[in-house]
Amino acid sequence: MNADFYNEMYDADGTLRPHYRVFADWLAAMPPERRVRKQAEADTAFHRVGITFAVYGEKSGTERLIPFDIIPRIVPAAEWAMLEAGLRQRVKALNAFLHDIYHDQEILSAGRMPAEQVLNNAQFRREMVGVDVASGIYAHIAGVDLVRAGAGETYVLEDNLRVPSGVSYLLEDRKMMMRLFPELFSRHLIAPVQHYPDMLLENLRTVAPTGVVDPTVVVLTPGAYNSAYFEHTFLAQQMGIELVEGRDLFVKNETVFMRTTQGPQRVDVIYRRLDDDFLDPLAFNKESMLGVPGLLAAYRAGQVTLANAIGAGVADDKSIYPYVPEMIRFYLGEEPTLHNVPTWMLRKPDDLKYVLAHLPELVVKEVHGAGGYGMLVGPASTSAEIEDFRARILAAPEKYIAQPTLALSNCPTFVDSGVAPRHLDLRPFVLSGKSISMVPGGLTRVALREGSLVVNSSQGGGTKDTWVLEN
Amino acid sequence: MLSRTADHLYWMARYTERTENLARLLDVSYQMSMVPQSVAAQNENWRAILALNSLETAFAEVYREVNVENVLRFMVADAANPSSIYSCVRAARENAHAVRGAMTAEMWESVNATWIELRQQDFEQIVARGVSEFFDWVKLRSAVIRGVTFGTMLRDDTLHFIRLGGLLERADNTARILDMQYHILRNGDEGASDFYRWGALLRSLSAFQVYRKVYRDAITPGRVAELLILRGDLPRSLHACADGIVRMLQLVANSASAETQRQAGVLHAGLHFARIDDVFAVGLHEYLTDFMDRIYELGEGISQDFLVPA
Q1: Residue B192, Cβ neighbours under 10 Å: how many?
Q2: Are residues B71 and B196 located together in one domain of the fold?
Q3: For the whole model, what pTM was predicted?
Q4: Which of A47, A243, A261 sits opposite B101 (nearest CB)?
Q5: Which residues in chain B touch residue A244, judged by CB atoms under 8 angstroms apart?
Q6: Closest residue of chain A to B99, computed from CA coordinates
Q7: Closest CA to A423 of A104, A129, A2
Q8: CB distance A260–B252 less than 8 Å?
Q9: Do B184 and B240 reside in the same domain of the chain?
Q10: I need a surface site. Which of A120, A310, B42, B83 has the fewest CB within 10 A?
Q11: Which phi and psi angles does A282 have, rounded to 5°?
């Protein structure tokens, strides 16, 4: 037991935590050959179903399986109740912030945030100023990354408000656990998660443009070569709606249609899994072959809802992140339930000076980065890597933020050498429409490399089923 | 449904059907190559398979000699040959992958598993186990995919476009196999071996027992042609395919498809009311060539009306 880290299964004395007791007995009684057989069964099933993801930068068409670990992350009911309340609060404030900065900008005039941080941000979309979106919701689907540090306290690592992915793994992991070990589900009261697609569809229907009675909802994908394509098809299929690509849609009289075998059909809500820049070649990236010409005009005219909204990225930007607690105080008049990780902003000379002097202890991230690409984990890096990163920081300090290296909590995980603790995080998916809803728990990602703190699947991360126990 | 979705499903079905028929064609050629004959005559048969797919040039770029082994390797396992079984299974899988959400999980899994299993066998292993076993495996996988399609898919346009693609491809392939074998048989050595060759042709289209049942008589070229072209109750006959195409087109019809439906109706009527003597009066090769041209035209029409609308 390494006392520097919070272990989800054992306390600091090595005593089993009460909510893991039933599981630990079950695991101890399982013959090793059964476990090996079950793990192989899981791999075969995942391959067969095609639950793979494409890896950028590798040989084109490389499809990898995301490793799945059979030891679940178990969350007691009371702990989840606290997390859920904190998530509701945070996402509510983020939506209020987005509405505000694209309208009256009260938070800026009140001097609670530096205006240039927002208005000069690349993710701030001037096209959205003054545009009224359905129900005033911008971040319909938020994937909030939570981590637990040394003393057991929870931090929000980042708010993903653009096109957060991973929910399909959450659902498939649960399906797999139920298939492999049905007996576990009669021994525990585990909160169900499989209704997520229904909740998502209902959420999307409630944000249809005003006056549309029976909205047509579609999922917009960049196509089969996108790393999250499996998830796009999965969600469209589970919701029973069309999965469209940009070329399937066209805009006429500021109205969006899809090409069907029975002629054009109107589209009211687009759950888009495509970044802002690629949505409309007329308005954004002119080279984009993935988008729909005229989509922005139709959107601004209120003829179609995009989920998430164009411009939502300004609220999950790493340079805006330090101000989220202030948003919660400003819009809701409440104190934040979930903590932010202390963050140095390298555009500030004092912060820059401190960070450059402490690089080997810190995590440095690109402000606009995602997916675990382009970051420095100081304690895990060689001095050459650190010096290389130092040069990149000095070239453009405003592009980076730094945070203390969090002692991410860990959980026993099957690895080549047996069972060993590996670090993990948790990504719950929060849906906002007429109201806020979520399925209990989220996607647990686990860093499979010993000592690694990077859980992203693109960096060798795996997943675990997440159980929220019902009392 | 989305035009693009229909397009992928239609091509998934075409490639799946094409894979099966290619296995049938190669299998019958392989069976026939065991009938006593000169090496030159044998290699002529393999050359005909390349010609059937207009692949002589592509083949000659990689292989020196037209013989059993080279043609089998080229047509079974060569990833660079777009008409090989390997490439057709891959194309079927890629089309399915693009719209996997539009089909049942079982269906996607059966298409994907076929591709995964195929990738695990190299040509040497296939030869070592016997190529006929491999062709049986291909036919079995095709039967599994077809069975899962019929057994799990909702009877809506998704299924209709899958059916349409399969039927169009089958019509073309049956005509092609018949045309080629008939040509070889007509030009080959006369004699007792003909019985085996006609038998092998019928078997390749799963029509040998049917022939016995229907005619209860010796195998003659005229009756073989009649069975494979005009019998409405033989599932791989041209007539049966045309029946299905007309029916599917009625089910998916839209405001743009009247002309395509008319063409399909004309083609169907011709098969429905024809006599085999009329076919031979035109000349079998000419008749089949005309038929394949019309199937091609139908494919173009379906594409414009439904799959890739302007």
Answers
A1: 8
A2: no
A3: 0.81
A4: A243
A5: 2, 4
A6: A233
A7: A2
A8: no
A9: yes
A10: A120
A11: -75, -30
Residue A60 has a pLDDT of 43
A33 contacts: CB under 8 Å, gap ≥ 6: none
Does B101 contact A245 at a Cβ distance shorter than 8 Å? no
pLDDT at B306 over 90: yes
Chain A and chain B share a number of CB contacts under 8 A equal to 61
Give the residue numbers spanning the domain of B99: 1-152
CB-based contact A242 B5, cutoff 8 Å: yes
> CA dihedral in degrees (A19, A199, A164, A456; nearest 10)?
30
Same domain, yes or no: B81 and B225: no
What residue of A is the nearest CA neighbor of B95?
Answer: A224
Quick: pLDDT tens for A2-58.
Answer: 557 899 999 989 999 999 999 999 999 999 899 989 988 988 888 777 666 555 544
**A44, closest residue in chain B (CA to CA):** B113
Same domain, B175 and B228: yes
Residue B102 and residue B136 in one domain: yes
Task: Give the number of domains in chain B.
Answer: 2
Q: Which of B4, B97, B254 sits opposite A262 (nearest CB)?
A: B254
Q: Which of B2, B115, B248, B260 would best serve as a mutation to test chain A binding (most A beta carbons within 10 A)?
A: B2
Strands A154-160 and A263-266, sheet pairing: unpaired
- Report the gap between the CA of B170 and the closest CA in chain A (Å): 23
| A171, A261, A265, best to mutate vs chain B, most B CBs in 10 Å | A261
* Axis-axis angle for helices A229-239, A196-206 (nearest 10): 80
* Domain extent listing, chain A: 18-341+406-468, 343-405
Residues B66, B199, single domain; the answer is no
Query: Which residues on B lie below 8 Å from A243 (Cβ)?
Result: 5, 99, 101-102
Q: Are residues B141 and B179 in the same domain?
A: no
pLDDT (0 to 100) of residue A1: 43
Q: Following DSSP, what letter does each residue of A49-104 receive, concatenated?
A: HT-EEE-TTSSTT-EEEPPEEEEEEEE-HHHHHHHHHHHHHHHHHHHHHHHHHTTT
Q: Does residue B189 carry a pLDDT above 60?
A: no
pLDDT tens for each residue of A182-235: 999 999 999 999 999 999 999 999 999 999 999 999 999 998 888 888 899 899
Of B103, B119, B152, the residue that ends a domain is B152
Q: Which residue, B152, B170, B196, sits at the end of a domain? A: B152
Q: Considering only the top CATH level, what class is A343-405? A: alpha beta
Cβ <8 Å between B2 and A248: yes
- Residues B147 and B189 occupy one common structural domain: no
B→A interface, C-beta within 8 Å: 1-6, 94, 97-102, 105, 108-109, 112-113, 116, 157, 161, 252, 254-255, 306-307, 309
Q: Give the DSSP H or E segment for A199.
A: helix A196-206
